[in-house]
Amino acid sequence: MTVLYVLDVPENTSVAKVAAEDPAVTVGRIGPYFAISSDGAVVVDRRSTDCRHAVWYSAVAGVSRDAHITQHDKDALRVEPV
After folding, report:
1. Which of 5, 50, 68, 74 could share a disulfide with 62, CB 3.0–4.6 Å?
2. Which domain of life is it from (predicted)?
3. CA distance linking residue 39 with residue 81, whole number of Å
């Protein structure tokens, strides 16, 4: 399972909200983090989040050990299973 962890602060709420729009993605919480998970890839479109670049590039707190970030640029964040 692919899991993306994002700190649950107001600046990052839109990242979790946009990720949750994908029916294959589940958004939960673990401690102070959003746990954004899927059996496949997790993809978040930056423009849909309305995040400024500084917030966008600092949003990732971590990923599960069986996943890796394959894209994190001005367009999207993609985390895929290994």
Report:
1. 5
2. Bacteria
3. 8
Name which of 5, 4, 7, 3 is nearest 55 in CA terms. 7
Let me know: does 18 contact 45? Beta carbons within 8 Å: yes
What is the enclosing helix (H) or strand (E) of 3? Answer: strand 2-7
Residue type, 18: V
- The neighbour count for residue 46, using CB atoms within 10 Å, is 22
Q: Is-above-0.70 flag for pTM?
A: yes
Q: Within a 13 Å sphere around the CA of 5, how many CA atoms are in the beta-carbon half?
A: 12
Nearest Cα neighbor of 66 from 51, 50, 79, 47 is 79
One pLDDT digit (tens) per residue for the chain, 82 residues: 999 999 999 999 999 999 999 999 999 999 999 999 999 999 999 999 999 999 999 999 999 999 999 999 999 999 999 9
